[in-house]
């Protein structure tokens, strides 16, 4: 099936995680799991997924909040995060995608989640944009990124705005040093003068001509191109 559709992936044979899936028109090069904080699949998020699919990837965005049970968490980490990611991974491999051709991408606290997935699962590549919780863990179920980074098992690209108050530059520098101790390729990039995340144009239409946005999008696509083989 090509195009965009909704799907359910089994989690530990006891429940399912809802997915939004976008497939490329032709043969898939691999899969990218997009972690996100939205409880709805916004048009900007779908634009990003479409762009990745146009580049040849099968893209999955799981609803990480499906276990809310009347309580609305704003972040999902720990065993629930890994279980949902594993469900996405199994869904992709069950459709013929090789494990080393599966990547993970996340923004903000979901960027933190993407990095932590890459410290616990041997995926092909990971990208985090404006990932928070560098020196202090975001929740009791998460590790601080500076602590987790040396344990990365997948090539990791991290993008930050140099003037983002959530990720002070001195903390990003320490994260860069910590990531350098990992046994995989890592690249931590900061964009001067940027107050928040240097992500793709769909998240900020006013930034369509921003050189940082163009550079960040290029880096994200190039990172997956280089490492998901």
From TrEMBL:
The keyword Methyltransferase does not apply. One of its GO terms (molecular function) is hydrolase activity. Gene3D superfamilies: alpha/beta hydrolase. InterPro entries: AB_hydrolase_fold, Dienelactn_hydro, Dienelactone_hydrolase-like. Keywords: Hydrolase. Residues 20-225 form the Dienelactone hydrolase domain. SUPFAM superfamilies: alpha/beta-Hydrolases. It comes from the Bacteria. Coiled coil: none annotated. This is Dienelactone hydrolase family protein. The lineage of its organism: Bacteria, Bacillati, Actinomycetota, Actinomycetes, Mycobacteriales.
């Amino acid at each position: 099936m090509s195009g965009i559709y909704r799907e359910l992936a089994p989690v530990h044979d006891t429940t399912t995680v809802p997915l939004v899936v976008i497939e490329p028109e032709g043969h898939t090069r691999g899969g990218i799991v997009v972690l996100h904080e939205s409880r709805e699949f916004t048009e900007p998020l779908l634009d990003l997924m479409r762009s990745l699919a146009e580049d040849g990837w099968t893209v999955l965005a799981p609803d990480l909040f499906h276990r809310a049970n009347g309580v609305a968490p704003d972040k999902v980490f720990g065993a629930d995060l890994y279980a949902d990611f594993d469900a996405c991974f199994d869904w992709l491999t069950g459709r013929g995608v090789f494990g080393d051709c599966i990547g993970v991408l996340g923004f903000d606290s979901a960027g933190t989640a993407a990095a932590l997935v890459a410290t616990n699962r041997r995926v092909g590549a990971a990208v985090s944009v404006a990932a928070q919780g560098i020196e202090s863990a975001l929740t009791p179920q998460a590790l601080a990124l500076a602590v987790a980074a040396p344990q990365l098992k997948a090539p990791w690209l991290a993008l930050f705005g140099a003037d983002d108050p959530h990720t002070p530059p001195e903390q990003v520098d320490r994260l860069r040093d910590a990531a350098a101790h990992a046994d995989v390729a890592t690249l931590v990039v900061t964009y001067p003068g940027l107050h928040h995340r240097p992500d793709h144009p769909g998240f900020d239409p006013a930034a369509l001509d921003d050189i940082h946005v163009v550079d960040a999008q290029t880096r994200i696509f190039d990172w997956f191109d280089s490492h998901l083989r």
